[in-house]
Amino acid sequence: MTRERISLSEHWRFYKHSMEDQSPFRGERLDLDDRSWEQVKVPHDWAIAGPFDADNDVQVNSVIEDGITNKMVHIGRTGALPIVGIGWYRYELSVPFGWVGKRVLIEFDGVMSDSTVYLNEQEVGSWPYGYTSFCFDLTERLRFGQTNVLAVRVCSLPSSSRWYPGAGIYRHVRLIVTGPIHVGPWGTYITTPHISDQSAQIRVVTTLVNALLQPKLVELKTILIDPNGRVCGEATSELEFTDRTECEQLVAVTEPALWDVAAPQLYKAVTIVSVLGLEVDRYETPFGIRSIAFDAQEGFKLNGTAMKLKGVCLHHDLGALGAAVYVRAIERQLELMQKMGCNAIRATHNPPAPELLDLCDRMGLLVIDEAFDEWAEGKVTNGYHRLFKEWAEKDLRAMICRDRNHPSVIMWSTGNEIREQWMEDGAEVARYLTNICHDADPTRPVTAGLSMTDEAIRNGLADAVDIPGWNYKPHRYAEYHEQRPDWIAYGSETASTVSSRGVYHFPAAEEIPMKRQKDLHASSYDLSAPRWGSTPDREFMAQDELPYMLGEFVWTGFDYLGEPTPYRTEWPSRSSYFGIMDLCGLPKDRYYLYKSQWSMEPVLHLLPHWNWPGREGEYIPVHCYTSYSQAELFLNGISLGVSRKSTDSLYERYRLRWEKVPYEPGTIRVVAYDNDGNEAMSHEVHTAGAPARILLEPDRSGIQADGHDLSFITVSIVDERGRRCPTASEKVSFTIQGAGELAAIDNGDPTSTTSFRSDSICTFSGQCMVIVRSLAGQPGTLRITAASGALQAATADIAAVPPAEAGIGELDSRSS
Ligand code: GAL
């Protein structure tokens, strides 16, 4: 093997000290005794276990973007978790004599944040931005045949983010051991300049590094492998160079299998570097053959076919698992979004974990890859603005060079609602970044999410990107299009509708801005949003009526930690209400509204629940999210009439409504009719009885015994007849035996202060979620037992099987 990739995941030691602790601490020292430090696995997020506390990372600042011009106190803005502080990580690295003459590099997918890496007490390098990947060469400082001490200092400053950033080495780390002449870090760039049905031209540019510092004659061979694993083209070049060089190769592929959202076909380029006939490095790059086009009149086209972007914005946290990367948790999020009919992800507001892009490549999802939430002008005291001048180009190039071979990536976004939108030099800064993107990858357009659109048009910023993204402007799209018919545009951020799963406030009327409620929740009729936001319905209408719009990116697919708008100061609100799914990944009603518009599957969903004791005779508004255009509602068998979708009124266009249903316990049943008036589908909601037992529903009953794989177990409180009790708040305790452990627990309540690492939690709207993890190298059965007072307990068995030869775990062995 000419290139080894060694994952540094197990056996790290971790120690955190507070920012106030001024005593000089040198965690990199060789003679330091770290045996009392916590033993951790990387990826690791030191803050996620909590405890939640209103005093964690209190921020005092304005939010000009949200119309808050005076400084105010924000509680829970970054999740009310203990992110702030200095963390030290240490790793004992055995370096065999066999590595003499090799190059040994260390590659971090992301460290949150301001990290400095040491080897054997010597500083190797630092990297401040928490979201970009970086690579350092360790070779000169290695001690062969000995144990070397790798140390990483991480500094997480207060008020550094507008959402939960996580803290620590929260993404994967690996060593790369290869020959002195090798492919540089992220050293291939593959594009497809010409594509036709008969053939595609593949252009491969390879960066080679020669650490011998004397000229060498090198053979560079690139072999292309098609999606069936067959060789479909190759090119060989000879070059002599010292230090570093780039080599361009063109290869033709006949009858290319195109990468598409429906059939995401992936090719692979295998790069082989040889000297005197001897292979010295081998590097693999997955890629796809596809064309993207953006047109001011016809919208977005993938491989020549028009397609509306039905997208969601995603922050990087994985709910109760925090920011630490779990491939399965990312995959589950993407699966849930894709099931809803979503075809695109905007990675907000920072470059995602590389695994997210690997998954989008494999699953057929389109991606906007975004660099920054701040440029030179800050939003929070210690945000990116303090780094911008020195680091923006390095970070932007790091993002693009790492990500430009992914067929899923369709646009580069240089920023979100950056304050330069309304500043005099806004266009100049935007142009500087656009030029860097064009230089690093001329094949994709550059965008930015703009909220102060009039200002950004006036100062020229909207023209300094290729495609302006309009945040929250469905009411202005037509006007901007008329003003500038040459602009290609889309809703880079839409809706920001707020809701708490299973919570309903009456009446069901549009409320923008949403008024704060005593219970610190938001109603699930999906009619409330902050001042700048809107409802799903408003955006659907704009997109339907304006075919030139590329589509939309809903804020957000999932609730995320931090930003509990509109409860900026009310404790204990500590996570967002914007998600289509709650923080556990359980669907809110809104999921079915999007699915009814975005997916091809038939949808028929009723809200609210039907447990309103004490409200007999009161009118309860009943809404139905459906892909059908008409349906009839029955209460205990009696018809309440047919409701039909109508373009006469916004809130009858995408939903069916019966506003005055006099409550009586029993059953509401909805029957959907097709266009000929025939019954097509029906759905019932029952009044549940008293809580009687617990129901456990794992999303997967078999996982890999690799220490990373997860099963998400939905826990519901049900009555004697097995009907979910929609208001049950019962404390459930969990025990796990056998081949696994508890990874995290949550109930989706944005005001819960139960630690995500607790072994018991109260259900919220009748449900909660337990996430269990396998143990590395320990196949067997994992048994989870759930108990709650007098309720009938439940158990579920999950099989942990030896890791498959190739599977999701393999994502971490991508080439780099
Ligand atoms: C936008 C912003 C997002 C989030 C959202 C909440 O203005 O870009 O990051 O804050 O508002 O509605």
In short:
This protein is mostly beta strands and 816 residues long. It is globular.
Characterization of this structure:
The chain is mostly beta strands and 816 residues long. Helix content is 11%, strand content 39%. The chain is built from nine helices and 46 strands. The strands form eleven sheets. Strands 23-24-25-26-27-28-29-30 form an eight-stranded parallel β-barrel, surrounded by four helices. Strands 3-2-6-11-8-9 form a six-stranded antiparallel beta sheet, with no helix packed on it. Helix 3 (388-403) runs parallel beside helix 4 (426-440). The chain is globular. The protein starts with a strand and ends in a 15-residue tail after the last strand. Residues 805-816 have low confidence and may be disordered. Beta-D-galactopyranose binds next to loops.
List keywords for this structure.
binds beta-D-galactopyranose; single chain; 9 helices; mainly beta; 46 strands; disordered C terminus; six-stranded antiparallel sheet; eight-stranded parallel β-barrel; 816 residues; 11% helix
